[in-house]
Design a protein that fits this description.
The chain has 4 helices and 11 strands. With 146 residues, the chain is an alpha+beta fold. β8 and β9 form a beta hairpin. It is globular.
């Protein structure tokens, strides 16, 4: 089993914490430094509401070599994120620019979400099954124990 580098990220306080928001209003181009959202993300998550969690810890997992989603989930077991977690991660000032997390869509299916920052703006995609490389980081709610 490959051992990835792991660290905890403490989220910054957001003014919208504990509020219920609509995915179709928040994850759109031109809002929250988002420049593009894939059509498949919109189709799979529109109509969903989410709560912005209070200050939380997130685990960052550095992928040690090329890996598929199946390998990442089996070996590193990142916790499933929510749309609220994705919202918080997009607002972190030092968020890694090539990031992925795993979120359940409105049908309950586990989806890989890719969020990439280029030229100061986010691109969000519900990434199809693919191979991720060492530049990518996986995020999920805290799982490291002290």
């Amino acid at each position: 089993m490959r051992e990835p580098a792991r660290r905890l990220i403490r989220s910054t306080e957001l003014p919208l914490q504990s509020m219920s928001l609509h995915a179709s209003q928040e994850f759109v181009s031109g809002h929250h430094d988002i420049t593009s959202v894939s059509e498949s993300f919109i189709a799979r998550f529109s109509g969903m509401t989410f709560i912005v969690p209070p200050a939380s810890n997130y685990e960052e997992i550095c992928i040690p070599s090329e890996m598929t989603d199946r390998e990442i989930l089996a070996e590193f077991k990142p916790k499933v994120s929510t749309l609220g977690d994705l919202f918080v991660l997009l607002h972190q000032p030092a968020q890694w620019p090539w990031s992925i997390c795993y979120i359940r869509d409105k049908d309950g299916e586990l989806r890989t979400i890719s969020f990439r920052r280029m030229d100061g703006e986010w691109h969000i995609d519900d990434g199809q099954a693919r191979t991720w490389n060492e530049i990518s980081r996986v995020y999920g709610p805290e799982t490291i124990t002290s």
